[in-house]
Amino acid sequence: MRSLIITSAVFSAFAAAALLFSGCGQKVRDDRAVLKLYSDPDGAAVTLLKREVGKTPYGCRISHGTHVVKIAKANYSPVWMTVTLKPGEEKKINVKLEPEKASVLFTSKPSGAAVHLNDKFVGETPFVLKDVAPGNYTALLKLPGYSPQSVKWSVSSARPQSINTVLVSNVGSLKVTSVPDKAQVKLNDAPVGDTPYNARLEQGKYKVTVVKAGYSIYEQTVLVNRDREAIVQAKMEPLPGNLKLTTVPSGASVSINGKDYGSTPLNVSSLPRGHYKLEFRKTGFDPLSIEIDLAGGQTVERNLALSSSTGQLDFVTYPPGVTVYLDGQLKGSTVRDPNNPEISSVFTIRGLTPGKHSLELVHKRARPNRKVIQVRIEKGKTERLDNLTMWIANSTLEMKDGRISTGRFIARQANGKVMFEPEPGVQVTYRADEIKSITPIKDKE
């Protein structure tokens, strides 16, 4: 900072005035104010009392009161201010000078070009870029179909500028055909239309992809030059098809056009496109035949329900634990129903050929210990029999008088009496005080 400057001449004048008005040893009071002016940047001209008095930093003594001050510097907007000073006051003022800014008009032929300044989009021609500070600048103009154009300019004052640019076309043409036709065309992976395809494109490299369902994908990188035509001829090969076959139930043998391929579930790949006849066979089910038109690249899925050529037999026994034979073949034994131990769960025999069958129930304690039932089975149907009952002793009753009976315990009545069946169809009621014990017979006995 430059200190307050008072020249020797001014100082001498001050001293003379002081002596002049001191008169008879009296002192004259100096009530002027001190004004100090600073600017950023410094070196700005200071106008005070309607004349330029110096450059910042600047200081002076000045009469108190209100004064108009102007601070100005080349390429910066001037600052005007009103300063009011009190007698004997010292005032410091700092001023921030703002650079002068200009407006720049951008036009182009053709118009509509995007203007990028410092890699940032600022507008489309024609447009005005406002408040441009002094300095050197470079902008890039871009318009589809034309070569990017760089422009440069400088700002040294607030004077408006105009920049006009003539853009140069960089467009060529592309033609795409295919066998087969009506295939989708993609440029750089973006769909643009179907073959035959013609377009005007900016100069440059393009990835051309041609796609059609059922055919191999065609790809080619092509260079489009300005005012030239690039040609792409895509030939695509048909793709094989696939079959995915399932049946309910599974395990059906499959033949395709008379050739055996295995059993379901079955995947058959790489079949040429065409018409196919498929046959499904499984023991106990009717043969099934279907026809399929298979397109290239297509996966056809079929889930088929086979119609049973056999029937099914369902029944419940009372009580459970009965051995079951059908047509002389052992099929197993009935088991207790978890929700009702007096009867068995449903016993099912599947895969029965249509017609008459002989069902035989056997239990060593049953009376009689063998029961035969004739049943008729129909194709694809389930024959459900009424509950099958056998008289089977389930308890040993010992009386207090020493008598022992083996039979079927039926129930204990509310009055304490016991209902017991020593023989099929013979029910006896005993008083509780006559009975010594009732012992259940285990199934293995």
Task: Provide a descriptive summary of the structure in words.
The chain is mainly beta and 445 residues long. It has six domains: 8-96, Immunoglobulin-like (Sandwich); 102-166, Immunoglobulins (Immunoglobulin-like, Sandwich), CATH 2.60.40.10; 171-235, Sandwich (Immunoglobulin-like), CATH 2.60.40; 241-305, Immunoglobulin-like, CATH 2.60.40; 311-389, Immunoglobulins (Immunoglobulin-like), CATH 2.60.40.10; 395-440, Roll (SH3 type barrels). 3% of the residues lie in helices and 58% in strands. Strands 43-42-41-40-44 form a five-stranded antiparallel beta sheet, with no helix packed on it. It has a four-stranded antiparallel beta sheet with strand order 3-2-5-6, with no helix packed on it. Strands 10-9-12-13 form a four-stranded antiparallel beta sheet, with no helix packed on it. A hairpin with a 2-residue loop joins strand 42 and strand 43. The chain is elongated, with a radius of gyration of 57 Å. The model is unreliable at 1-27 (pLDDT under 50).
Give short descriptive properties of this protein.
445 residues; mainly beta; Immunoglobulin-like; 6 domains; five-stranded antiparallel β-sheet; four-stranded antiparallel β-sheet; 44 strands; 58% strand; disordered N terminus
Please summarize what this structure is.
The protein has 445 residues and is mainly beta. The chain folds into six domains: 8-96, Immunoglobulin-like (Sandwich); 102-166, Immunoglobulin-like, CATH 2.60.40.10; 171-235, Sandwich (Immunoglobulin-like); 241-305, Immunoglobulin-like (Sandwich); 311-389, Sandwich (Immunoglobulin-like); 395-440, SH3 type barrels (Roll), CATH 2.30.30.
